[in-house]
UniProtKB/TrEMBL annotation:
Superkingdom of origin: Bacteria
Name of the protein in question: RpiR family transcriptional regulator
Organism from which the protein derives: Streptomyces collinus (strain DSM 40733 / Tue 365)
Ranges that cross the membrane: 143-162
Membrane topology: Multi-pass membrane protein
Length: 181
């Protein structure tokens, strides 16, 4: 008989909560569920905040959130799922940084919390109450953690860096236009 301990139950709760929230946010972007705007509306928003092309950015963010969240909740491919979700949340946090930390002011608090929880799960692992454990950790090997987090960090740095340059150019262009008037 297998006896699950507090750690396994705690990881299950953390996976279900974090994964469920991420999956719901991704479904808003991809399908317009739960009051979301779907790919068209989210794509327009992504363009407005500097992620281009907007629809492709919305698709990537939606897949990372929905897919990463669902996999985290199931405890399957935990390193890759956590890394993908953490990367998506880093991209979301970049949009909210100018508003400060707290979510009530439009800050990055929520995105940072979800991203850190997802990264923590990638590092810690899913626990014994997971599909990874049931499948013998085929998709949850020790070497996968730094690889998944490294790939996600590199990809996120490229995407957020490109966005930052776009936003900076747009802001400079708007300032120049004001001086010309």
């Amino acid at each position: 008989m297998t006896c699950y301990d507090r750690r396994d139950l705690g990881l299950l709760l953390l996976r279900l909560g974090t994964g469920g929230v991420l999956a719901a946010h991704g479904a808003q972007k991809l399908f317009g569920w739960f009051g979301g705007h779907g790919l068209e509306g989210t794509g327009q928003f992504m363009e407005s905040v500097g992620y281009a092309p907007g629809k492709a950015s919305a698709t990537a963010a939606g897949l990372a959130e929905a897919g990463g969240g669902a996999l985290l909740a199931l405890g399957l491919a935990t390193p890759a799922a956590g890394a993908a979700a953490a990367g998506a949340m880093a991209g979301a946090a970049a949009v909210h940084v100018p508003n400060g930390f707290f979510a009530q002011e439009g800050g990055y608090e929520h995105a940072a919390s979800l991203g850190l929880a997802a990264a923590g799960l990638a590092v810690t692992g899913p626990g014994r109450l997971s599909l990874d454990h049931a499948m013998g950790h085929v998709f949850d090997r020790g070497w996968m953690v730094p690889v998944a987090l490294g790939v996600a960090a590199a990809g996120t740095a490229v995407v957020v860096g490109a966005r930052t340059r776009r936003v900076r150019r747009r802001t400079e262009g708007e300032q120049e236009a004001l001086f010309e008037e």
